[in-house]
Specification:
It holds the Pfam family Methyltransf_25. GO terms for molecular function: methyltransferase activity. This protein is α/β, with parallel strands linked by helices and about 250 residues long. The chain folds into two domains: about 20-145 and about 210-245, 3-Layer(aba) Sandwich (Rossmann fold), CATH 3.40.50.150; about 150-205, N-terminal domain of TfIIb, CATH 2.20.25. It is about 25% helix and about 35% strand. It contains seven helices and twelve strands. The strands form two sheets. It has a seven-stranded mixed beta sheet, sandwiched between helices. It is globular and about 55 Å long. The relative contact order is 0.18. Bound molecules: S-adenosylmethionine. S-adenosylmethionine (SAM) binds near residues 49, 51, 54, 75 and 93. S-adenosylmethionine binds near residues 49, 50, 70 and 114.
């Protein structure tokens, strides 16, 4: 029997095996290089939607004090096992409250596209702003509307990977773009070696650079840079994924 699961639950045990080729180290270096060029050296970072900690690990290795936050308990359990020294917290992008403030808040691997309305995006940006130290930076990578449509329309990825417990897992993800609702959807199917089957549905909304700039300004950010990875080039209408860097008020610190 196939069980329907909440997003990022069954996925947790195979996420790392599927994401083995992702350039997490390159992304962190891209972020820290940008901040260095701004004369800014963060001492601590909050990695939002940290998942299994893959986007978190390079910041730990760079010597920053790191906190990770994610909605999924299953993803966090994997993260905590891999990075026992990190403080991982369960929480929502739209409603998190921590006692600490951070020089840098990151949200990587198009996690912010899980926010499907401007209202949720503004709620998230408001909480980000409230958790940044003076002069602190927010960074995120975001699928654009055309990126989401092109990348997700009709595509299928599948394979067999070892899960955390050593079982082979067959995964089959089918992508669909709903033009009317402007939402990208993934039906993520998993069949475990013992015959059990799971389906998770993931939904994302694309955001265009102008739209992101407007939302960031509305939330009170400034010094907004929206660019491409890895060369910081200005995006054009065909850019599938952009990176945003945005700052809150305060003096620059070295
Ligand atoms: C594609 S994964 C990225 C994980 C990690 N940042 C990485 O780079 O591997 C997206 C993550 O966003 C988390 N997420 C989705 N919606 C969320 C929300 N509203 N609040 C907090 N986390 C959320 C999921 O649980 C999942 O771990």
């Amino acid at each position: 029997m196939t069980t329907h699961q909440a997003p990022f639950t069954a996925l947790a045990s195979v996420y790392d095996a599927i994401m083995g080729e992702i350039e997490y180290d390159g992304w962190a270096e891209f972020v820290l290089t940008f901040l260095r060029s701004e004369g800014f050296t963060p001492a601590n970072v909050l990695d939002l939607a940290c998942g299994t900690g893959n986007s978190t690990r390079p910041f730990v290795e760079a010597g920053l004090q790191v906190t990770g936050l994610d909605l999924s308990r299953d993803m966090l359990l994997v993260a905590q096992k891999k990075l026992p020294e990190v403080n991982f917290v369960q929480g929502s992008l739209t409603d998190f409250r921590l006692s600490e403030r951070f020089d840098l808040i990151s949200c990587m691997f198009d996690s912010i596209n899980n926010l499907l309305t401007h209202e949720d995006m503004l709620a998230c940006l408001g909480h980000v702003k409230d958790h940044l130290t003076e002069g602190g930076w927010f960074v995120a990578d975001v699928n654009t509307r055309s990126g989401l449509r092109d990348l997700w329309e009709g595509g299928v990825i599948e394979g067999v990977v070892p899960a955390e417990d050593g079982q082979d897992v067959h995964y089959h993800w089918s992508h669909h773009y709903d033009e009317d609702r402007e939402l990208g959807m993934i039906q993520a199917f998993f069949r475990m070696e013992d015959g059990s089957e799971f389906i998770e549905q993931h939904t994302e909304r694309g955001y265009d650079p102008q739209e992101l700039g407007d939302l960031l300004q509305k939330a009170g950010f400034h010094d907004i840079t929206i660019c491409e990875y890895p060369d910081y080039a200005e995006p054009d209408e065909d850019t599938p994924r952009v990176w945003i860097f945005a700052k809150v008020k305060g003096a620059k610190r070295g």
